[in-house]
Write a structure and sequence with these properties.
This protein is about 30% helix and about 20% strand. It contains nine helices and seven strands. A seven-stranded mixed beta sheet has the order 1-2-3-4-5-7-6, with helices on both faces. Strand 2 and strand 3 form a beta hairpin. Helix 5 packs across helix 6 and helix 7 crosses helix 9. The two termini are about 15 Å apart. The N terminus is likely disordered. The structure holds coenzyme A (COA). The site of coenzyme A has 18 residues, from strand 4, helix 7 and helix 8.
Length: about 260
């Protein structure tokens, strides 16, 4: 059972707006899965097409700085351009991969020497299935994120760490992380809640699965995840518990509670 069915939503979460348009996939993603392709070689990060645009052509698209005479107020439309949203939730794009990896590097690599997704894997998933990711930005800075992909088997396997199976009905949450300066402030909980609401609005997704180390199991249980046993996946000496959360029948109630 998931939080909406159990009435477990923490009070702060219930303040969230309904059907937040910021939870929609970015333009072009359209909620569709793009064709699957192999993960590039480690050490050779895949470059998103936009990043390949020659420097000159980017340069000529940049607006020249305009100066208004003293005393003339800027038009409102210009003023808005300078102001980043205080808080924004949106699906991630490949251009966010470096910010994601920076948070991962601090959260995981500095602790254990490894992390759930390497830079090229982040770029891979954000290219193939951006609609299964969610980022929380404050004044334009990424403070927390979740990256997921689709999986089509009952249990996770080693392959599920690197593959997106577009025909699958299971959202595999690869990683949830909060920037270290923003931890223990409820942000991870709010983001996970919004993500599950978002998944509830994707017709193809019937359940969510993840693997985590044992101390984090109670954290995920608060959101309706239940342990299904030891995970077949191991990373070095690390072992994990696999958890699942059914989203079936929850879509309508989640849409109404988001
Ligand atoms: C785990 C994480 C996502 C939680 O986000 P957060 O914003 O700090 O968490 P919240 O403030 O919403 O909730 C706090 C709860 O998270 C749980 N929690 C956080 N870090 C934990 C840890 N290292 N071990 C066990 N539980 C932890 C606890 O239940 C805690 O509640 P408590 O303080 O009452 O014990 C965040 O701490 C983080 O990014 N950690 C590093 C990366 C990571 O381990 N990600 C999860 C595995 S993919």
């Amino acid at each position: 059972m998931c939080p909406s069915a159990l009435g477990l939503a923490p009070p702060r979460v219930q303040l969230l707006q309904r059907q937040d348009p910021l939870l929609l996939p970015p333009p072009g993603a359209g909620g569709r899965s793009l064709p699957q392709r192999p993960v590039p070689e480690p050490g050779r990060p895949e470059v998103a097409p936009r990043a390949r645009m020659p420097v000159q052509s980017i340069h000529c698209l940049m607006p020249a700085a305009l100066r208004l005479p003293p005393g003339v107020p800027e038009p409102l439309s210009c003023q808005r351009r300078h102001t980043l949203p205080a808080s924004e939730f949106r699906c991630l794009t490949p251009q966010d991969a470096v910010s994601v990896f920076e948070i991962e590097r601090e959260a995981f690599i500095s602790v254990s020497g490894d992390c759930p997704l390497r830079l090229h894997e982040i770029q891979h998933f954000l290219t193939l299935c951006p609609e299964l990711s969610l980022g929380w930005f404050q004044e334009g800075r990424l403070v927390a994120f979740i990256i997921g992909s689709l999986w089509d088997e009952e249990r996770l396997t080693q392959e599920s760490l690197t593959l997106h199976r577009p025909g699958g009905h299971t959202a595999h949450l690869h990683v949830l992380a909060v920037h270290r300066t923003f931890r223990q402030q409820g942000k991870g909980s709010i983001l996970l809640w919004r993500y599950l609401c978002h998944l509830g609005g994707l017709p193809a997704v019937r359940r969510a699965v993840l693997m985590c180390e044992d101390p984090l199991v109670p954290f995920y249980e608060r959101f309706g995840f239940r342990p299904v046993g030891p995970c077949a996946v191991t990373v070095g000496l690390l072992t994990f518990t696999e958890l699942e959360c059914s989203l079936q029948g929850q879509a309508a109630s989640r849409r109404n509670s988001c």
